[in-house]
Amino acid sequence: MVRAVHWVMVAPALTLLAALIFLPSLYVFWLSLNNSSFGAQAQWVGLANYFTLLQDPYFWRAFLNTFVLVNVVVYLELALGLAMALLFAGGMPWPKLTLAVVLAPYAISEVVAVIMWKYMFEPQVGPLQWLLRSIGLGEIDWAVNPVHGLGLVVLLAVWHHLPFTFLLLYAALLGVPKELYEAARVDGASAWTTFRRITVPVIMPAILVALLFRYIFAFRIFSEPWLLTQGGPARSTEVLAVYLYKAAFRYHDFGLAAATGWAMVLLSLLISIPYLRVMYRRMFAHEA
Fold this sequence. Notes:
Elements: H1 2-32, E1 34-35, E2 43-44, H2 48-55, H3 57-90, H4 95-103, H5 110-120, H6 127-134, H7 146-174, H8 178-186, H9 191-219, H10 223-228, H11 240-249, H12 254-283
Antiparallel strand pairs: 1-2
Helix pairs in contact: 1-12, 2-12, 3-7, 3-9, 7-9, 9-12, 11-12
């Protein structure tokens, strides 16, 4: 009886999830098995769209760009976010002001952020380009050089989403019991030993949550590469989300776009499963 009441209580949430996530996902999967375009009736082609993806070199280039970009962005954000969280937890001058400055990028929309960074790195009048030339480092040819273009995407993504990782880790650091640090000082532990033996193990659940969320969100990155380069030059800076967008709205191949979407879902699951297993073992296995 109690279990039935529990199911009744969660039924509205389950219904909402089914209506907004499960049913549309099933429709997209059905669409991925068809040849579909504007004004044409869908024709069943089975797994042909998936085989097209596997044989398309542009898809694999987009996958490689996404894989490299996501790993660089996520782990660079983690390192910077942890360093900033340690600074704030140790005490910063004018903490309210500095915290507002650190969180400010998260309040800016992605479109505005990209436009701002495009101006700062504009080849002719960009102030950061002028600064790089003045100190002898040359220019960032992000519109021509694919490496420079993806590098600028990394810088922009890290700058824009770093506050999310920082907040998670900072909140976790504030929850570390002070008694543990006092005991470490009494035992004569060095700062590095204290960090490795106390800080990291205690905040590891927050680190795993930050990694999981940023992996999922970064894997579907779209605004930054699209607004900066639109995948150019010669589709060399495309990521999977840009590949999907072009398949759907430039080439009007909805079946291929749907197959790309499901490929992104499966790849995201493959990335997230190890983190979910580690999180389960650390946080919930003792309850079994």
